[in-house]
């Protein structure tokens, strides 16, 4: 092990150390090229007390990945560990619902621990944040892809005018922005792209993002659910009230702010609690926020392996997430056994929440619901 800062004494950039309950980093596992890169050095400078451990690949860290037995250490691993890697494939992929395209990830893994989250499954379950340090390559790939698309020919459910690129498929960008300037660089990149817009969903309020001057070219989707669900399921995230209180400030700072009702969990009392949430939004949001708002609605999908893991650390969550009497199996594209609400249950749930939105927050356009 090497002390991160002594290794790079002569080149350490000036960075303010991160002080945050989510990230009390003691160890940074890094591919050598990632640690030596400017972005890697920035991350190391933000965590000056961390020890640096070189690893051949960010995919192969036996202490961290693929280890369901880490359940009890899960949150500690997320808090105390970061990984630095170089992203090999920087391709843009088509999407179509939430965004037109998925931008190459600038991170994967998350310091938070939502019980339903599919992100940890990519590297096993105790999956801390991996930061990809080849940000210049990633922003260039995005710029080239945007240039090839030209002007969006017609409106779709992603956006009426712009090609929308999702930045946060495998991480929470608001937390990633504490760790490095990758998100700041992407916000700055999209500021210069008149035909495209960045987008990410988040459950964390990072007020440093208010300084980035997005000029309307980045859409933040604050992810909301009734507080009773969030207290049980959204482990380590910002509280729902804090997310709602941030919306006006993000609009004022130049973001487009949408909402992400996801996942909608059907359980006793869900309609009353969603009604209260919609009424709170109607009471608290400014006219400016309402005028530009839209939401997506996504009913819960769960997963058998994740269910088994959760029983080891958070069995109360499974009482609302694992409802075989309401759910049907669905084998996902990557072969995982997922479950989702039965077709009739899901259809009734989607219809009902749309009725509630129309009744209590009629200004809130639903981009899609499924
Ligand atoms: S904040 Fe998002 S990425 Fe992080 S654990 Fe929750 S759902 Fe997963």
Description:
- By secondary structure, the chain is an alpha/beta fold.
- The chain has one domain (2-369): Alpha-Beta Horseshoe (pyruvate-formate lyase- activating enzyme), CATH 3.80.30.
- The chain has 14 helices and 17 strands.
- Helix 10 runs parallel beside helix 14.
- It is globular.
- The chain starts with a strand and ends with a strand.
Averaged pLDDT, please?
92
Count every beta strand, where a strand is a DSSP E run of 2 or more residues.
17
Helical content band:
25-40%
Number of helices: 14
- Briefly note the structural class of the backbone: alpha/beta
How does the major sheet shape up? Answer: 8 strands, mixed
| Small molecules in complex | iron/sulfur cluster
Keywords: Lyase
Pfam families: SPL (PF20903)
Protein name: Lyase
InterPro entries: rSAM (IPR007197), rSAM_sf (IPR058240), SPL (IPR049539), Uncharacterised_Spl-rel (IPR023805)
Strand-helix topology:
Elements: E1 2-3, H1 4-7, E2 27-30, H2 32-36, H3 38-46, E3 51-54, H4 74-80, E4 81-85, E5 93-94, E6 101-102, E7 107-108, E8 129-132, H5 135-149, E9 163-166, H6 173-179, H7 182-191, E10 196-202, E11 218-224, H8 227-233, H9 240-252, E12 256-264, H10 270-284, H11 287-292, E13 294-299, E14 301-303, H12 304-313, H13 315-321, E15 327-331, E16 337-341, H14 343-360, E17 365-369
Parallel strand pairs: 2-3, 2-4, 4-8, 6-9, 9-10, 10-11, 11-12, 12-13, 13-17
Antiparallel strand pairs: 1-3, 5-6, 7-8, 14-16, 15-16
Helix pairs in contact: 10-14, 12-13
The structure holds iron/sulfur cluster (SF4).
């Amino acid at each position: 092990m090497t002390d991160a800062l002594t290794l790079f004494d002569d080149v350490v950039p000036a960075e303010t150390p991160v002080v945050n309950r989510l990230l009390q980093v003691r160890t940074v596992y890094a591919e050598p090229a990632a640690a030596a890169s400017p972005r890697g050095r920035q991350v190391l400078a933000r965590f000056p007390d961390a020890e640096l451990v070189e690893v051949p690949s960010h995919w192969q860290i036996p202490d961290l990945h693929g280890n369901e037995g880490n359940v009890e250490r899960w949150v500690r691993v997320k808090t105390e560990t970061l990984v630095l890697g170089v992203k090999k494939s920087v391709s843009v992929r088509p999407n179509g619902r939430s965004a037109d395209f998925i931008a190459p990830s600038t991170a994967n893994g998350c310091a938070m621990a939502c019980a339903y989250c599919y992100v940890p499954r990519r590297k096993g379950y105790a999956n801390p944040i991996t930061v990809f340090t080849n940000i210049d390559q990633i922003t260039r790939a995005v710029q080239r892809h945007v240039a090839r698309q030209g002007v969006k020919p017609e409106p779709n459910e992603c956006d009426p005018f712009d090609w929308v690129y999702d930045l946060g498929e495998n991480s929470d960008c608001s937390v990633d922005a504490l760790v490095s300037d990758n998100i700041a660089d992407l916000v700055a990149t999209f500021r210069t792209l008149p035909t495209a817009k960045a987008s990410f969903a988040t459950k964390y309020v990072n007020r440093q993002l208010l300084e980035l001057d997005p000029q309307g070219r980045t859409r933040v989707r604050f992810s909301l659910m009734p507080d009773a669900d969030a207290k049980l399921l959204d482990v380590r995230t910002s509280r729902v009230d804090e997310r709602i209180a941030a919306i006006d400030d993000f609009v004022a700072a130049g973001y487009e702010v949408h909402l992400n009702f996801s996942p909608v969990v059907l359980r006793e009392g869900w309609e009353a609690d969603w009604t209260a949430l919609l009424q709170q939004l109607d009471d608290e949001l400014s006219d400016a926020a309402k005028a530009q708002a839209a939401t997506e609605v996504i009913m819960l999908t769960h997963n058998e392996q994740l269910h088994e893991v959760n029983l080891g650390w958070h069995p109360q969550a499974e009482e609302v997430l694992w409802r075989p009497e309401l759910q049907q199996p669905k084998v996902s594209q990557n072969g995982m056994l997922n479950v989702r609400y039965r077709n009739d249950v899901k259809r009734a749930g989607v219809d009902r929440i749309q009725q509630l939105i129309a009744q209590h927050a009629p200004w809130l356009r639903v981009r899609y619901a499924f």
